[in-house]
Amino acid sequence: MEQVLSAQKPLPGPRALRKQLGDREVVRICVVGAGRAGLIHARNIAKYVRRAELVALCDADPTTLNKVGEELGVSKRFTQFSTALDGLEFDAVVIVTPTFLHRDIACMAAQHEKHIFLEKPMAVTVAECQDINAAVQRSGVKLQIGFMRRFDASFVRAKETLETGELGRVMIIKSTGRGPGGPGGWMLDLRKSNGIIAEVNSHDIDTLRWLVGQELECVYAQAQNFKCKEAQRAWPDFYDNVVAQFGFEDSTMGVVDGTCPAHYGYDARVEVLCERGVLFLGSVKQDGFTKVTVDGQAIGQAVKSWRTLFKDAYLAEMEHFVDSILHDTPLRVTGLDGLRVVEAVIATNESIRSGRPVNITKENPI
Amino acid sequence: MEQVLSAQKPLPGPRALRKQLGDREVVRICVVGAGRAGLIHARNIAKYVRRAELVALCDADPTTLNKVGEELGVSKRFTQFSTALDGLEFDAVVIVTPTFLHRDIACMAAQHEKHIFLEKPMAVTVAECQDINAAVQRSGVKLQIGFMRRFDASFVRAKETLETGELGRVMIIKSTGRGPGGPGGWMLDLRKSNGIIAEVNSHDIDTLRWLVGQELECVYAQAQNFKCKEAQRAWPDFYDNVVAQFGFEDSTMGVVDGTCPAHYGYDARVEVLCERGVLFLGSVKQDGFTKVTVDGQAIGQAVKSWRTLFKDAYLAEMEHFVDSILHDTPLRVTGLDGLRVVEAVIATNESIRSGRPVNITKENPI
Amino acid sequence: MEQVLSAQKPLPGPRALRKQLGDREVVRICVVGAGRAGLIHARNIAKYVRRAELVALCDADPTTLNKVGEELGVSKRFTQFSTALDGLEFDAVVIVTPTFLHRDIACMAAQHEKHIFLEKPMAVTVAECQDINAAVQRSGVKLQIGFMRRFDASFVRAKETLETGELGRVMIIKSTGRGPGGPGGWMLDLRKSNGIIAEVNSHDIDTLRWLVGQELECVYAQAQNFKCKEAQRAWPDFYDNVVAQFGFEDSTMGVVDGTCPAHYGYDARVEVLCERGVLFLGSVKQDGFTKVTVDGQAIGQAVKSWRTLFKDAYLAEMEHFVDSILHDTPLRVTGLDGLRVVEAVIATNESIRSGRPVNITKENPI
Amino acid sequence: MEQVLSAQKPLPGPRALRKQLGDREVVRICVVGAGRAGLIHARNIAKYVRRAELVALCDADPTTLNKVGEELGVSKRFTQFSTALDGLEFDAVVIVTPTFLHRDIACMAAQHEKHIFLEKPMAVTVAECQDINAAVQRSGVKLQIGFMRRFDASFVRAKETLETGELGRVMIIKSTGRGPGGPGGWMLDLRKSNGIIAEVNSHDIDTLRWLVGQELECVYAQAQNFKCKEAQRAWPDFYDNVVAQFGFEDSTMGVVDGTCPAHYGYDARVEVLCERGVLFLGSVKQDGFTKVTVDGQAIGQAVKSWRTLFKDAYLAEMEHFVDSILHDTPLRVTGLDGLRVVEAVIATNESIRSGRPVNITKENPI
């Protein structure tokens, strides 16, 4: 327990930290946003991530805040992040708020020299991404975007397989992302969320970029609201199904399709067609359990939730973040990755609006 | 054997035929084009299709002609279809020539009151399709297009499942079609073949229309020549990979991706996302054989060929054609289906050329 | 049609036949027993098997006889095989009667110099098998037992894989055989049928012997009547579930489990554990069709019937039989194979009765 | 951190503990045996199990002891368990030593009123199991045997499905257990280990009993040493492959097959055939990753290790143990379960030795 106790000493600012943090130190983390994904991160930090300590929780909703605080035994609880910054010693922040709040919180954190783990999508606009990247660069803190698939064993194996070159270049990559539960609240407002292409399919867009290792150049997309008819009056541009076709700078072709709610489960599958073979990632079935009934139906269970499918990946990305802080090593997902996905998201929505293919403008990250 | 011998009597023309052909009769068929798919049809007719007799073969290449003729014991062999029409009694023609010859042969057959089974794609241009449909209507013969997937047990089960309504409406449909062997010869010339979107992915386009039960309205497509670099000089617009995104009249969204050659096998898979579930058709693995080696690789065999995957469907579509002639019953795949796919093919190529989404013009079928 | 007509000439007896039958001849076949499997064979011969002609049908039940005769256009129909032998020219017989009739019919056929295709199991007793083998040897006709799995593409691939030696020797082999429909009639009487270990699992026992390439030495088995309680009073030793554990002469260990009726489908799966890997054959699912419903159930269809699962194998074994007659080439499944399985069946039932492991007595085949 | 600090107070003995331990307490655990499975448990306790504290490690090998101690930051390290008992305050022991040491350590722990988590198999002999159960009963501590499959989500779903009765009674249950790495050292000596039927397939035997919910009555087994020829001279009765066929008291039939080393991976699959359907658990493939190469090989990865396959189950069983201590709730796996499996193991080895089926003697647990 000495380790933890010694961590109670204030850590130096990140620049100093790089020199001083040794193997025996602990990163003290404040989680901002204790909803669904926030709870995953908070639990991981509190219970599973080595050399991390969950020192505080922030959530605008006191009920959520106290519930999670009780569960994890975290007594430092704040309804405003600024209050946490004022009165608390910590090293890093994990931001899992609604997307439209990312910029302000992340910039504030950077100004206070807190390392930043920021859930996807990075922000709503390119300008917001640039603000965050600029603030991060100024303060010298680390910034990791929550593309946890890059830490999933199957995805990593796919990346490694592609990098060996044995299958030749990628020709077509397709990524399907569907969530079981419906988007609600602020996510219905495309001005706040950019829609499911951002909230759900950011992961798919990042998968395309990461596995191919090339930048996206253009997009043509279609979208429809098939299932959330009740949302149509208030949010006429909201869509619950989207198909986006991307062109890469090296001519690789990509397809992302997204649906939320899919109801039947959480469905994340990728197919990578190469010159000399093809890779498949994921399955609609969650495990090897099959029940065959008397009428000849062979019934398995669809994957229910990203919580189970990417459980290990969520933990691994947080361990990577903490290790990177402690050893001052490079991050595998950066603010540039976050920015590039937001640029693609915005171009996709522009294509949906205009009915035309749209070039993806790529800004300088800072 | 009496049945066959009695079939040697000249059959009356199709209009008369409808009244006279009873259950005991046999349809005498001339197969035009004895290459890959032609051989499948010729064998099926000669050996497996009830109430059908393979009475003659036509192929411009005498070597192919004689080889297949010998194999199937067909002594009536012609290098020109017109000669066959002149000197031979038969009821129906199965046309499996290069696509750019479809119109002339089909129209000639219709004029001579021969029922027509025409391989996909129906023709190269919309005008050609209309010529065929007009000739067929004038003469009153039957015309079936070779979309054999509509006769495959899995595809039929999908169609039936969708028609029950249990899954709700289709929201997104995706169809992948890849062939193991490379396109060659006249197929490299888009003016003669319309490329792989026609020669390979006609099936996928038809699958979209058929399963959704709605017409395609627009298309945006990308294409690249990744693997057939040697063909590029002579055929700069040839492509071996294509991704086409369709919009349906009822807002359903569709994606077709095609690759030829895929080398690893024949890969035909379809995914139909509905409001209350999803259907998957096909598998990259051909059967339940798995070999696990000492290093932990679990190795199955990819589907090798459409010949095996759709073997039963090829037979079933021909039996349907013959039954339809004998009993004068409606066909499940018509000249309208052929036309609609050619229209979509042409719009897809126009989108590839222009880089823009293209509306699919739908002509009156006759 | 000349081929068929020329086949109407009486063929010489088998010894002479071997010298005279050339590539252009046809084997004239009489099918004895027109029930389930008999119908499969009759249809294959009538429609699909090259160089075979279905010249006559025998069945004790006139209704079945006439129904199948009508379907296949076979006018020569007999309720007794002896009548067929007296008044008919033919070359070979396919015997698909109840097992307890195999010996008499096969011996009669051999005496009349007819080649014999005999459905599994070969006979009820070892003595009957020996009678058949002796009669066959005396007359010089060919005898093939209906182990069609040896002609299935997956099973052949397994055999070939094992023969390469890449996986090392077989250590454990397990074969599961379950039929959807219940055994009835004479099959309930173990004295006539030897029970499901013979009627259903003969295939599994043959699979063990064939894939391992070694003889079975001993067996220990258990059996229960779990589902056919109504049959228990009349047939107290009838069982609908059996597990039999075999020892091979080279110490390989084998397990067969059989169930009939399984209701949910026809389930034939084999697992072959070798020193350097493992092979799996078969799947409970019949194809790549999966329906995922809104509640997250991923539903496929179990294999329904051996008719579909082994359709190609049934055809291939008959083509092999016909080719072997025409070209006087060796058969891949012989009377010795039939005998060895019957010996294993009898030992299995003895083990069930006695509750003890039983050595499998292996007789000289003739 | 207060929770942990407060846990430093000596806990009262187990009988008193039941009254006093509230929700805020922590169970202090000493892990005895820090090898493969011991390390898993030690890591889980140190890092993941709520309300558990890893206070000490014991291992006869100082190198292992110090390595694991360093990794987990445990400074209290002992090469003898008796020393730990003398000088250390703790509440529970996790015993992961070689099997032949289980009895002495478990009895010593019980005498000192330590709750006991005991890895499978419970012990080498029935008498040893009875000694342990008697000691546990005398002292009133809790005893859990490490059958972690009972905590695996798929296995639990199978159990629940069977308990609904929808599939009817179990008729045949088969469980396959194969380990990738070879047994070595004391495991080669059947007098110390009872062989792989105990060390590997204890899990499968427990699975049979648990899923069927009935006791095993008799066993017939075969075993061979196919791969570990070098061990044969010193350990002539050692086997690396075993097939055991069980009869249940209610006539259900069971098959367990075990192989170690299997080399290709860790293979744990179960099939439960019921009157109205069948359940399958497990898969040879570890996930949805498939690579299809240019030659048409569809390659997945076999499950490598029980460490990954049952990772969550190992954690869940330990959490269950800790919860059961803290809340004094009944355990899901008891000393009776451990005893019953050892009885079946011993009967299996007796059957292998004698070549005869053997009745399984079931002793009173204490």
Short description:
Four copies of one chain form a homotetramer. Chain A has helices at 2-6, 14-20, 36-48, 62-72, 81-87, 102-111, 126-139, 153-164, 190-193, 196-199, 202-212, 306-309, 311-327, 335-354; strands at residues 27-32, 52-58, 77-78, 92-95, 115-118, 143-145, 170-178, 216-224, 241-248, 253-259, 267-274, 277-281, 290-293, 297-301, 358-359.
Question: Using DSSP, what is the number of strands of chain A?
Answer: 15
Total count of helical runs of at least 4 residues of chain A = 14
Using only CA atoms, what is the Rg of chain A? 21 Å
CA(first)-CA(last) distance of chain A: 41 Å
Report the helical percentage of chain A: 25-40%
Strand order of the largest sheet of chain A: 12-11-7-10-9-8-15
Strand percentage of chain A lies at 15-25%
Catalogue the unreliable spans of chain A. Answer: 1-24
Can you describe this structure?
The structure is a homotetramer of 366-residue chains. Chain A is α/β, with parallel strands linked by helices. Chain A has 14 helices and 15 strands. In chain A, strands 12-11-7-10-9-8-15 form a 7-stranded mixed beta sheet, covered by helices on one side. In chain A, strands 3-2-1-4-5-6 form a 6-stranded parallel beta sheet, sandwiched between helices. In chain A, helix 6 runs parallel beside helix 7 and helix 7 packs antiparallel against helix 14 (335-354). The longest helix of chain A is centred in the C-terminal third of the chain and has 20 residues, at 335-354. Chain A is globular and about 55 Å long. The two termini of chain A are 41 Å apart. At the B-D interface, strand 13 and strand 14 of B face strand 13 and strand 14 of D.
